[in-house]
């Protein structure tokens, strides 16, 4: 089997699972959304009190455990880290703010588009612009440094967190919050979500699919290897939606689930997400998989994403179907300025070291 077909199939599995999860109860056009799912988990843990988005998403638990188990089995697991962790935290923080102004991570952007939401096309254009901007810094020598070997236990922290969250999900202690209405109350059965999440985690770990990496490689080195995976996600999700979720398929900009039609901020939110994804070396789903196979730097990024998602809801930065908040608009502009300053300073210091 050639690489293109293999990557397409890998992506197709993810696209199919996204449609199945939506069919069995996940929110509209949100069979999978890494940013939204971390936001829901943050709410369940009480890090924010937006009652409509609080739930321990078993899909995230599945991503982590699936990627962890297969990385151990295939010899890919390796505890490493120490590459500018604080910068990575804040890049993850601003990445999710951009995503929540758009209302979706880059993977959900593709799934939204495959179910007819043309607002996601505006988001995609913004994402591509953000990736292009990030690439300019890569060309000038941007790097967060090399990771080094870490104690073995460091690599086990993410799987331990995932198991702890699973226990909380099953036991439902009083200090964990669960939405009774809104997107957080819309969920596929736990076992189905967990099993399908593990399959996605395995597929992502083996394929190395990354939305930012796919478009970066096209722009930077004209390599379409990972793009075939992205194409597989889109095509199979589109076909699966037309079969499984035809009643919800809606081609257009208006009346899309958990989305808004304000083009400027759909675009700008994903510009910020695109820049951060390139500066981090991977989109949110890729960071999750890396963290699951022992990468503490990706783990710090995931922590930044989770805290950023909580911050977005505590301070009124996240959008809603009603539109974009003033705080959200300001936060995107501030985020773009901050991450560009980070990138510029890293490049400047790198050039001074090499000169």
Q: Could you walk me through the main structural features you see in this protein, from its secondary elements to its overall organization?
A:
The model has no long low-confidence stretch (mean pLDDT 97). The protein has one domain. Helices cover 67% and strands 1% of the residues. It starts with a helix and ends with a helix. With 355 residues, the chain is mostly helical. The protein has a two-stranded antiparallel ribbon with strand order 1-2. It has 14 helices and two strands; from the N terminus they run αααβαααβαααααααα. The longest helix is centred in the last third of the chain and has 29 residues, at 326-354.
What does the average pLDDT come to?
Answer: 97
| H/E series | HHHEHHHEHHHHHHHH
Tertiary shape? globular
Helical amount: 55-70%
Radius of gyration: 19 Å
Contiguous helical run count = 14
Number of domains: 1
According to DSSP, the number of beta strands is 2
Low-confidence stretches: none
Q: How are the strands of the biggest sheet laid out side by side?
A: 1-2
Termini gap: 46 Å
Largest sheet: 2 strands, antiparallel
Strand content is under 5%
């Amino acid at each position: 089997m050639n690489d293109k077909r293999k990557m397409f199939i890998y992506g197709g599995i993810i696209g199919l699972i996204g449609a199945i999860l939506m069919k069995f109860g996940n929110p509209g056009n949100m069979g999978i959304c890494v940013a939204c799912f971390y936001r829901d988990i943050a709410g369940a843990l009480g890090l924010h009190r937006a009652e409509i988005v609080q739930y321990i998403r078993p899909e995230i638990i599945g991503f982590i455990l699936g990627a962890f188990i297969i990385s151990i089995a295939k010899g890919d697991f390796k505890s490493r880290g120490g590459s500018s962790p604080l910068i990575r935290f804040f890049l993850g923080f601003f990445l999710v703010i951009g995503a929540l102004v758009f209302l979706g991570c880059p993977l959900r952007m593709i799934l939204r588009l495959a179910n007819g939401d043309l607002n996601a096309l505006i988001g995609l254009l913004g994402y591509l612009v953000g990736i292009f901007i990030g690439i300019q810094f890569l060309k000038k020598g941007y790097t967060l440094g090399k990771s080094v070997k870490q104690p073995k236990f460091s690599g086990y922290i993410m799987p331990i967190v995932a198991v702890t969250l699973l226990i909380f999900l099953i036991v439902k202690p009083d200090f964990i919050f669960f939405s009774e209405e809104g997107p957080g109350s819309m969920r596929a059965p736990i076992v189905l979500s967990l099993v399908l999440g593990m399959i996605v985690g395995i597929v992502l770990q083996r394929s190395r699919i990354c939305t930012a990496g796919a478009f970066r490689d096209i722009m930077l080195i004209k390599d379409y290897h990972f793009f075939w995976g992205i194409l597989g996600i889109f095509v199979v999700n589109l076909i699966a939606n037309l079969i499984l979720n035809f009643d919800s398929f809606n081609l257009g900009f208006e009346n899309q689930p958990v989305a808004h039609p304000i083009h400027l901020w759909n675009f700008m939110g994903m510009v910020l997400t695109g820049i951060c994804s390139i500066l981090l070396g991977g989109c949110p789903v890729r960071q999750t998989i890396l963290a699951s196979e022992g990468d503490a730097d990706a783990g710090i990024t995931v922590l930044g994403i989770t805290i950023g998602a909580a911050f977005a809801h505590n301070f009124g930065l996240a959008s809603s179907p009603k539109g974009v908040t003033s705080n959200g608009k300001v936060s995107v502009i501030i985020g773009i300025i901050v991450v560009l300053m980070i990138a510029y300073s890293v490049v400047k210091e790198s050039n001074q070291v090499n000169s």
